[in-house]
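@channel sequence for tomorrow's demo:
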Amino acid sequence: MKVAILAGGVGTRLAEETVVKPKPMVEIGGMPILWHIMKLYSHYGFDEFAVALGYRGEYIKKYFVDFCSLQGSLSVNLGTSEVERHGAEATNWKIDLIETGADTATGGRIKRLQPYLGNETFLLTWGDGVADVDIPKLVEFHRSHGKLATVTAVRPAARFGHIEFDGDRVVEFSEKPQTQEGWINGAFFVLEPQIFDYIDGDETQWELEPMSGLARDGQLMAYRHTSFWQCMDTLRDKKRLEELWDSGSPPWRIWKSG
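structure tokens (generated this afternoon):
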């Protein structure tokens, strides 16, 4: 089962970072958030990826072309041009890096990945959010209902203090995660190849007509994820993820090393 990752967005609300690099390459703990996402899937044995490129896609291609030589220590023989690696963790990922157009919408990017995903069930997520989703349980849920699409539903953390009233009197004020908010699309999809029939072309936004159409046809199910999830839309989000990483126990780092 392959993992599709959309990594073509500009990331305008992270402009201080994304003026020189695509949003999925913004670093948390010294590694691109795209790497963190791939590590989650790889932890569960999903090592084949199709990454949809767009804005500054060459940055991502160069990163993975140089990936092996940038990990661990090296011995370089300038006379023979031989390079020997030392102490780097083995990473057995197979990655298709696919140019999907600078202005292509999310649905269009997904459709352009179709030739690389095969006629089988596949996983899909965005290149700007991390979570501790149990991927095998997500896949098991998807297979149990027999529909075309499963979306992981999450409850976002509060951005502002939560207030409860008794008339005009405040009876509770809290900065805790906003567990009373409604469920939202947290990505981490499991999809059947028939979903491509719901995407017209490059201008199609996956979150609009395709998902609405699947829901209308009774083909969209939700896997409720109540543990950690965080997107990286703003510099505030990035700072929070950095703080969690620096704490030594970031909740999305379920892998043992690296």
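heads up for whoever presents: The chain has one domain: 3-246.
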